[in-house]
Design brief:
The complex is a heterodimer of chains A (about 260) and B (about 240).
Chain A: H1 2-33, H2 40-76, H3 79-82, H4 99-114, H5 117-129, H6 136-160, H7 164-181, H8 184-196, H9 202-216, H10 222-225, H11 229-259
Helix pairs in contact in A: 1-2, 2-9, 4-6, 4-9, 5-6, 6-9, 6-11, 7-11, 8-11
Chain B: H1 3-33, H2 41-80, H3 83-99, H4 102-117, H5 125-156, H6 160-177, H7 180-192, H8 198-212, H9 225-243
Helix pairs in contact in B: 1-2, 2-8, 3-5, 4-5, 4-7, 5-8, 5-9, 6-9, 7-9
Classes of the chains: A mainly alpha (about 260), B mainly alpha (about 240).
Chain lengths: ~260, ~240
């Protein structure tokens, strides 16, 4: 059974990921807290479900999404495809010719972020903690738009060859200015949303796009220019979430002014 | 209908909805733009079914096990009032979850290739392995440190933006001095260190701590640990690139 072997492999790798965490948690329960875990049975079942779920999830991704997505990233960035089937004109391509790559980058950035389990976990918690002021759905869409814009810009950067740190440093400046004006309750969550977006679904597909582009665009070196898309995908959600809250704040205020 | 089964169906339909965008994007580009038939359609259908089922179980396990234990431990450690235990726990949680992260093992291997191609280290397998391992420990250490600093911030109630701005300055300064080959990679490592098991636990730790300490707000003070954990690796990886 090929499926069974795949499942076993996926289960083992997830288990390897979880063992250190489980060791630390139970070690501290025994040594530092010295109190029985409340609802131990439920927690153990919960860990088992999480383990089973992640294993199935990864296995399914590797079977259905990754091969197709990676192949598409390579095909779309292939100079022959971009020049419309005429080969040998790679040197004359302009950055505008990569339009399908940008569209793919935007679409894959958005859709993988919506499916990202880490983001789902943080968004659920945020809705819970804020008593519904921050909606899990709204937060995830804001983050997904941020990732989408970030990856598109990152793909364009690889095509035109501007150094990565120009973008990152400008992004930092934008984040700082936004932080100054945005309501304080959102700051920590917005910063967090940058780190959680790039996880098991997004990283492999986005990395494939970056490497594919850097190896096909003339003058780019995949080893040096292929990296950096993840950095875009972790920076722009911060801007998007801060912007989303600012925008909804302004709109609420404008409506209040009009009514008053 | 059984209550928990209804809950399961509800989560299942949520997972299905979350995956629809990917299916549309892949389907659209494959049929409209690339105009290629999809091979092994049945295999892909099975894979998608597994993804939906897996996400459902994961969310279930999250609410049942990961969130409760994370918050319970944060509360118990806060109540115990022992700062050394809490700090040791924070550091180990960050270090332990990162060192085993599969995405990081992958990226560290690629980084060794970059370093070898750039002439920073020799081309031998042993040298590459040593470089990759060193990088992995450096990143795990920096994540442990990040969680520790983040937990101290929650205890003291420091506003998060000052620490983040300091971190940004650290990244900018390191960028000026780090070798060019390492910069793109260093920026990327910030994003890959926080996986789907680490994130819920670390979030629960922060929120749990902020809710059990008087004067802290779980919303403004509880979040932010992940943000530190994605910032420190960038600084440390560039430092590693400068030293090695």
């Amino acid at each position: 059974m090929e499926l069974l072997a795949l499942f076993q492999q996926s289960l083992l790798s997830t288990l390897g990921d979880m063992i250190p965490i489980v060791t630390i948690i139970f070690g501290f329960q025994l040594l530092a807290i010295r109190r029985p875990v409340h609802n131990l049975k439920q927690v153990v079942i919960g860990f088992f479900y999480a383990l089973l779920g992640l294993s199935l999830f990864l296995m399914g991704l590797e079977q259905a999404i990754f091969p197709l997505g990676e192949q598409m990233a390579r095909q779309l960035s292939d100079p022959d495809f971009i020049s419309g089937g005429i080969s040998g004109v790679a040197e004359q391509l302009q950055w505008q010719d990569y339009k399908w790559v940008y569209l793919f980058a935007a679409a894959i950035g958005f859709s993988t972020t919506i499916a990202e389990p880490s983001l789902l976990a943080v968004a659920t918690k945020a809705e819970d903690v804020s008593g519904g002021v921050v909606s899990a759905g709204g937060l995830r869409i804001a983050v997904a738009i941020g990732v989408s814009v970030g990856i598109t810009l990152g793909a364009w950067r690889i095509v035109v060859g501007i150094p990565l740190y120009y973008f990152i440093v400008s992004g930092y400046i934008v984040v700082m200015v936004q932080t100054y004006f945005a309501p304080k309750f959102i700051t920590a969550l917005a910063y967090d949303s940058g780190g959680v977006t790039t996880s098991i679904v997004t990283v492999p597909l986005v990395a494939a796009l970056g490497l594919g582009l850097a190896s096909s665009v003339p003058g780019r070196n995949p080893l040096m220019d292929g990296f950096g898309l993840i950095a875009f995908a972790s920076l722009f959600p911060i801007i998007a979430v801060l912007g989303y809250v600012q925008l909804s704040g302004w709109m609420a205020q404008r409506d209040a002014n009009r009514d008053g | 209908m059984n209550e928990s089964f209804r809950g399961f169906l509800h989560t299942l339909s949520g997972s299905l909805r979350d995956l629809t965008p990917i299916i549309i994007v892949v389907g659209f580009f494959q049929t409209m733009i690339l105009q290629q038939p999809v091979e092994d359609l049945s295999e892909i259908a099975v894979g998608l079914f597994l993804v939906v089922l897996g996400l459902t179980f994961f969310i279930y396990g999250l609410e049942m096990g990961l969130f409760p234990i994370g918050e319970e431990m944060a509360e118990a450690l806060a109540k115990k009032g022992s700062l050394p235990w809490l700090m040791a726990f924070s550091f180990l949680l960050g270090f332990g979850t990162t060192i085993a992260e599969p995405a990081l093992i992958l990226v560290a291997g690629e980084a060794a290739e970059v370093a070898a191609a750039g002439g920073m280290i020799g081309d031998g397998d042993a040298e590459k392995q040593a470089y990759a391992d060193g990088l992995r420990y450096t990143i795990a250490f920096s994540v442990g440190l990040a969680i520790l600093v983040g937990v101290v911030r929650i205890l003291k109630g420091w506003p998060i933006q000052y620490l983040i701005i300091a971190g940004y300055l650290g990244v900018v300064v390191m960028t000026l001095f780090a070798p060019d080959e390492i910069i793109g990679l260093a920026y990327d490592t910030g994003g890959v260190t926080t996986g789907p098991v680490t994130v819920p636990l670390v979030t629960a730790l922060g929120v749990g701590l902020a809710s059990s300490i008087r004067g802290r707000n779980p919303m403004t003070d509880g979040f932010g640990l992940i943000a530190f954990a994605s910032l420190t690796p960038m600084i440390f990886v560039m430092g590693y690139g400068m030293i090695v």
